[in-house]
């Protein structure tokens, strides 16, 4: 009980943190806490085939004792168009070089825009001016909505979209603490902040027990990151 | 059958049209068709208390023979914070002057941002570069996300968010044909284009039969619009 009473939640400014349960969003959550924010975690159930990531998000939210963990149901399957929500095969065993070429089949149309829009709505209701998202423009999968210029444009739009944008002295901020870090640097930062990466799951196509496949783009980038960081990945792989 | 065969759908560029079933979005749909687009209508079921508007949207979509009418379920009630989705009373009998003062309780946090984000996702899947939304910055209810500078910022963001934004020769456009029109001008424009306003429903708080209350902000602005346009409103009111 001493752990939960060490911080008075109301002393800290609130921040909405988008949390998938993967390595990046978990590290972004750790940074938000480290920077003194009271975290409100938001996770989406959007018809993804890798529903095991929701379990990971719950484990992480609990470990960080977030003020609230909101799971939002949205159905992106109506749009089709992605291997993460449709019937197409998730690509396997591509090199980091291949992964960074072009927009992959695992791209979900406008996903970060939809997720950030919900975060803006929740921030407005909470009276929060800060949103954290673990996007990354370095060791990433070529998604257009992970680039710094996209995030800047979203922030400008969101400031005009909401009450916060029309009230004096308030300024909505989209925090992207990982955007210019390599995967290895993200892992090192997280370890400095005490992140337990055994709780996280990055795989696009986990097995029935929620075990990472080890061969999809997400697993490939994660393994490369741990290798380059010179630390062992604490999760088990299905190979 | 001759009606459905008069136009070859594939000849026209596709446009996603946000359609609530109200007067404004119906007029925006009429403008999209008039400008030569093949309309894909998108309507949201978002826990609104005025679900009768979904019936109106279906009637309108059918009348315009849209290529597809997509109803998307999203739950904004998790956020609370609005009389349109919560338990608060919808304000009645406010004047147009009162309505335009401040952000009203009927404001749904970041609603247009969320709706437009889904439209961007659908446009990307359809290969469409055009989105129509019937927002209005003149006879409106003081929502921050109806202003031209908000729409401009959203458009800039959306161009960076999607494949269309990284492919040469493509340029996503958010069309707001009503943004600088008065309600009376919107009605006149719609009538020129042959809109049947008896199909539409604008009320925030309709009765059990889907009959407009006549006293909420939406009814007040609509009635004032028809009065100023010098035409009779073809719908019946509950008073």
Write the layout of secondary structure elements.
Two copies of one chain form a homodimer.
Chain A: H1 2-5, E1 14-18, H2 23-34, E2 38-45, H3 52-63, E3 68-73, H4 96-99, H5 111-126, E4 130-132, H6 148-161, H7 163-166, E5 173-175, H8 183-192, H9 217-229
Parallel strand pairs in A: 1-2, 1-4, 2-3, 4-5
Helix pairs in contact in A: 2-8, 8-9
Please characterize this protein's 3D structure:
Two copies of one chain form a homodimer. Chain A has 239 residues and is of the alpha/beta class. Chain A has a single domain, classed as Rossmann fold. Helices cover 37% and strands 10% of the residues of chain A. Chain A is built from nine helices and five strands; from the N terminus they run αβαβαβααβααβαα. The first copy, chain A, has helices spanning 2-5, 23-34, 52-63, 96-99, 111-126, 148-161, 163-166, 183-192, 217-229, and strands spanning 14-18, 38-45, 68-73, 130-132, 173-175. In chain A, strand 1 (14-18), helix 2 and strand 2 form a beta-alpha-beta unit. Chains A and B meet through strand 3, helix 5, helix 6 and helix 7 of A and strand 3, helix 5, helix 6 and helix 7 of B.
């Amino acid at each position: 009980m001493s752990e939960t009473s060490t911080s008075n939640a109301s002393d800290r400014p609130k921040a909405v943190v988008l949390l998938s349960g993967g390595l990046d969003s978990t590290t972004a959550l750790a940074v938000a806490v480290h920077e003194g924010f009271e975290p409100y975690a938001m996770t989406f159930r959007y018809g993804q085939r890798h529903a095991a990531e929701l379990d990971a998000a719950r484990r992480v939210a609990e470990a960080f004792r977030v003020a609230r963990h909101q799971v939002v149901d949205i159905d992106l399957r109506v749009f089709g168009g992605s291997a993460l929500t449709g019937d197409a095969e998730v690509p396997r065993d591509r090199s980091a070089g291949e992964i960074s070429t072009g927009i992959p089949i695992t791209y979900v149309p406008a996903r970060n825009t939809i997720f950030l829009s919900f975060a803006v709505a929740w921030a407005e209701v909470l009276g929060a001016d800060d949103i954290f998202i673990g996007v990354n423009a370095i060791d990433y999968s070529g998604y257009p909505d992970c680039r710094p210029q996209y995030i800047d444009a979203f922030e400008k739009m969101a400031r005009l979209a909401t009450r916060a944008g029309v009230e004096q002295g308030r300024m909505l901020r989209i925090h992207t603490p990982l955007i210019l870090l390599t995967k290895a640097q993200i892992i090192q930062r997280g370890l400095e902040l005490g992140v337990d990466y055994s709780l996280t799951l990055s795989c696009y196509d986990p097995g029935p027990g929620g075990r990472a496949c080890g061969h999809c783009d997400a697993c490939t980038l994660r393994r490369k990151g741990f290798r380059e960081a010179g630390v062992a990945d604490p999760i088990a792989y299905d190979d």
